[in-house]
Design brief:
Largest interface: A-B, 58 and 58 residues
Largest sheet of chain A: 7 strands, mixed
Radius of gyration of chain A: 21 Å
Strand content of chain A: 15-25%
Helix content of chain A: 40-55%
Number of domains of chain A: 2
Strand order of the largest sheet of chain A: 1-4-5-15-10-11-14
Structural class of chain A: alpha/beta
Oligomer: homodimer
CATH class of the largest domain in chain A: Alpha Beta
Number of helices of chain A: 20
Chain lengths: 460, 460
Amino acid sequence: MASPAPRRTKFILDEDRIPRAWYNIVSDLLANGIQPFPPLHPGTGQPIGPADLAPLFPMALIMQEVATDRDIEIPDPIRDAYQLYRPAPVFRAHRLEAALDTPAHIYYKYEGVSAGGSHKPNTAIPQAWFNKQEGVKRLATETGAGQWGSSLALAGALFGLEVKVYQVRASYDQKPYRRMLMETYGASVVPSPSNTTNYGRKVLAETPDSPGSLGMAISEAVEDAASRDDTKYALGSVLNHVLLHQTVIGIESIEQMAMAGEEPDVIIACAGGGSNFAGMAFPWVGRQLRGEGRYRIIAAEPAAAPSLTRGVYAYDFGDTGMMTPLVKMHTLGSGFIPEAIHAGGLRYHGMAPLVSLLKDQGLIDAQSVHQRASFEVGIQFARTEGILPAPESTHAIKVAVDEALDAKARGEKRVILFNLSGHGHFDLSSYEKYLQGGLEDFEYPADKVAAALAGLPKVG
Amino acid sequence: MASPAPRRTKFILDEDRIPRAWYNIVSDLLANGIQPFPPLHPGTGQPIGPADLAPLFPMALIMQEVATDRDIEIPDPIRDAYQLYRPAPVFRAHRLEAALDTPAHIYYKYEGVSAGGSHKPNTAIPQAWFNKQEGVKRLATETGAGQWGSSLALAGALFGLEVKVYQVRASYDQKPYRRMLMETYGASVVPSPSNTTNYGRKVLAETPDSPGSLGMAISEAVEDAASRDDTKYALGSVLNHVLLHQTVIGIESIEQMAMAGEEPDVIIACAGGGSNFAGMAFPWVGRQLRGEGRYRIIAAEPAAAPSLTRGVYAYDFGDTGMMTPLVKMHTLGSGFIPEAIHAGGLRYHGMAPLVSLLKDQGLIDAQSVHQRASFEVGIQFARTEGILPAPESTHAIKVAVDEALDAKARGEKRVILFNLSGHGHFDLSSYEKYLQGGLEDFEYPADKVAAALAGLPKVG
């Protein structure tokens, strides 16, 4: 018989190793004297309390939003649904390393194994379950390219909740496959701006051919939820409880790197609203805050929507319609609409408040990446590792490859861990556009950024 | 902390449990006095030898085609590439069982975890590697919906071989995402019939708007390979060596069912050319041939292309252009073209000779399934288990669900194992058509079958 397989490629945990608690970084921040900024009521400028959020969210999620305990227990029915795809594997990228001829060791956590094809079900499942427990019948949400919408549609199907999705019109028109997936899971999908909300009708009256934006779609979904007793709102990123749910990624990866017998020097994830970045990074930042390790932790964001690297750290609205509470975050202004030329997700105007706080405190770094360079390494990754990455995830690959090439130039061993947040099966038209030379790079111009920032609300 | 997760969902093997040898069922057939029929030369009617196949295949694969050893060693570089996605998980379908309210236990082996999204890389990888070992620079092949073409494109990228794919025109035009995937992996794709082969030009001269068929595309790829010194041909199903490579599915599943502590009563896989069916079934048939177990083993085929249930067992060509050797198989005639209304794969006119032999010997059963019923259970599966199944795989789900409901009606416990051969991410337009009521059932008419069979070659 053959000799043993020459090298280990996957680090897989048994399903009884699905974390029993989410990791709440607020606990370790407070222990280090770092105080998160509260959300403010847009009318009064005063901190909002749980009751202010009750029209939109079930109380269990509101309590997670303000929790200060380090470990938040994951109920068994949620762990049971996580078992459909978790724990997610960590891969050693032997073939990519060989192609780069680098001494670096490259590892990636692969969240595309979920039925939604990305990390998004990590929070869609608990959000649906906690809503169901409190008698909610219907969830309203927004989605861009559709990773979040299809994940919430799946979670709704698993727990018997109706799901209404407001999808950014540009994606609705150009990428029909994710809409079809949402509908196959039983969700109802309309393009945003739509004529089913007051806010949508207002936008359409002013701009009938509006391509929509995430900020607009959030306004519509919030209005839908606020106006119906049987309906709550679900958000796929930004909020504390969403980031909390994603920490299963990083918690598992700590155990898997121990299986691999290596400690990462650099940890990388792409960042749009910040949830997959937080999911990977927070448990590692927590180790750092507790003095258990030292890491360089990098958020990879697109040059076309560079909130962490070009925005300001200020109180701003989460949506375009100015209906949400004000949160302190790195923002490009709530009126920001990324250029249509930008192919992937990661189009949100702001960054999650907790991620923004870590950046402001110097606990993490950020780099902006152009999309052509991202697609280039995305294709190299597909041809070596097999998996076709989501365009969003290619931003993280680009930073990882740059790190690996830097290690090669310096002749250093370096252990790199990045989060491959999803697959690109529904994004092939963007790959085709890249291969045909039709994708251009776009750096959001300084004057536009300045104008957007000048319009920030005067509070906080 | 929470109590342990309430039930086990996944049975996952560590990567050192990737099989070290493929299982060659010919060995156990011969031991039971069952002799496979040799392929015949279409001109002489005499059995062909290895030299006859040498223009099309590397010698290592030809020797596998005629091997009689029970275990065929898997070389380490192939096991290393298998590690990118194998071993594939076995799932217990707890949520589907609950939805059906059945006492049956339903298990499925999920082959959609591969980068190609189906079982096809199990043979694409060894085919590319063995060709590379013998100095081949370029592979030509055919594909329908594109599962096979994208898998060979991936394998070509992994081992540095050029890949040329002749894709059935109907699929090329209607389902562009798999073409884009093949091109992202670096393959060159043309619609078949094409004007790049003599056979393609002949078809186009007669029928300029021909939608193509797998049989036609095989003729084009065979002609391409036979006419170029640097090129060999690769087939994604039907041949003995292809079925052999797929047996990793069944070998792993035997170990995984032992992990689950259950012995299956019924084993099910869908069947077009027969490779995923063989991959799942042969190792279990082998146990039966050796007196180690008793199972009902069912091939699920579409009513629109019912070779096992409606064809005859006779010598026929593998392609439409009558260039291939004659093989004894269940066939609808090499001129068979399934109706365009049939949405999924499983469109081939014949069935793999080894699968046909088992059917003829009564060692396996077959059932034909209509596509609307298949999509219906496919959607139920997606909404309960999360995974969106390939339309092909829904045929197996349909038979599994029927078995589970029969067990319920009889009040019997029954252990059902089926192969979920791939995901349906690139087939969402078919799901949408079904949801919009646009899919019809089609039973291939008796007179057409009879006419096709009347044209069978007069040999054997």
